[in-house]
């Protein structure tokens, strides 16, 4: 019989192959049982030890700790150039500052190993949008661990300090200014609208011989001059100039605060840095030169000539009749007035970038309460009717045409009060900017009465 004779469905070769395969499987099975039997014969203590070692290995594999070694931190502030940050985050200099740049860079540190991104403080029209999502305390540079450098842009001081001072002195000396007005605009040109222009218009309508200095990086430009061209063409005494913070803060506590901010030793906080810089800048301007600071959202109704060393109350306590909050949107003080120095000191010592109003209206309120009754501070607090006859919650009523009997009566009495008692009306642009000025509203009538260019 041949080897390949068929037996059912298999050949003889197939049967031989399966016989060998069956033997191999049986042998492996026997080896496994022998190994298992040998393992079971081991002492119980050895088995327990092996189990403990296995569990320990598993725990280390899953719940391991990565310990970072502290990096060496340089005591010098790190300053980034714009080109270095954009081109290569690892190229940096630790000492020099590019004075020709439009911005300076401070460093804020977080836990990470590389520079992640440049946080830009764009100049926005709404200070609410001009913000930084930081929440650090002022001691964060001393923390150990890996660091991420977050770059903060701050509007840059002028490279030539004498340029700012000489321009301002020349501006005031060239004109016989009846009064000196100051405004700040740390924002974009796109956000400087007709409402801001009308504030200037109403100011010059009541004070045609006054001088107005607008401290602003964006307005001190060829395009800014175009926006203000109607005032220049009509020979109003006006100048826009970029701020020199070092010059303005010199010999005050603001200089040290600003230096710490640039070095990253002070957190700018969550509130707009532009808003807080404006709060300090206005104090420094009238402390340095003396005069009147005014926000860009007022309608000026009367001459300020009779006012000296005054600040306005925003709210009154109905029970006591005393003021409950002041506002820093209008301030009129002599040069180097002691109250202004106290305001600057308070700003520098108690700065908090996470609380809205803490470095502005609340600051002047708490300082005045603290020094109340002291003879060396000679100033007057004017009632709300002087500058804030209508609160921000009701300002929309001045912009809308009366449609109901009650608002109409309220508006009529408010008009009489404003015309007889108010020097100016704060329009609270932060709240009212989006509200259209309707024809027939109180503001529309005031704009016709106090405009200049509408009659040209």
UniProtKB/TrEMBL annotation:
Q: Has keyword NADP?
A: no
For the keyword Chloroplast, the answer is no
TM ranges? 34-67
Per the record, the domain of life is Eukaryota
Output the SUPFAM superfamilies linked to this UniProt entry: Nucleotide-diphospho-sugar transferases (SSF53448)
Under the heading InterPro entries, the entry gives: A1-4-GlycosylTfrase_dom (IPR007652), GlycoTrfase_DXD_sugar-bd_CS (IPR007577), Nucleotide-diphossugar_trans (IPR029044), Put_A1-4-GlycosylTfrase_plant (IPR044789)
Every Alpha 1,4-glycosyltransferase domain range: 333-454
Keywords for this entry?
Membrane, Transmembrane, Transmembrane helix
Entry protein name? Alpha 1,4-glycosyltransferase domain-containing protein
Origin species, per record, is Nepenthes gracilis
